[in-house]
Design a protein that fits this description.
By secondary structure, the protein is an all-alpha fold. The chain has one domain. Helices cover 72% and strands 0% of the residues. The chain contains 5 helices and no strands. Helix 1 packs across helix 2. The longest helix has 19 residues. It starts with 5 loop residues before the first helix and ends with a helix. 28% of the residues are buried.
């Protein structure tokens, strides 16, 4: 499996968060940006070989678990009510 660029990886993590956890795109972007500010992805920048689709799924799960409380107001269900 060919690795993605760092930017592609972040985009994929964001997309997976919106799809798996029913969040609006803006909420997912904010979660990924917070994770990035906390250096969650620093190893990915240092070693682009780990920027794979499998790792994106793992990272989406981990980022959501860590940053979900801050994003709960961004769920699609809340937006439609």
């Amino acid at each position: 499996m060919k690795p993605m660029t760092y930017e592609q990886h972040l985009d994929e993590v964001t997309t997976l968060i919106t799809e798996k956890y029913d969040l609006e795109e803006e909420a997912a972007i904010q979660m990924v940006m917070r994770a990035q500010a906390d250096n969650f992805f620093s190893g990915h920048d240092d070693n682009p070989k780990i920027c794979t689709l499998d790792r994106a799924h793992q990272d989406a799960r981990d980022v959501f678990k860590k940053y979900q409380l801050a994003a709960q107001s961004g769920t699609k269900a809340a937006a439609s009510s």
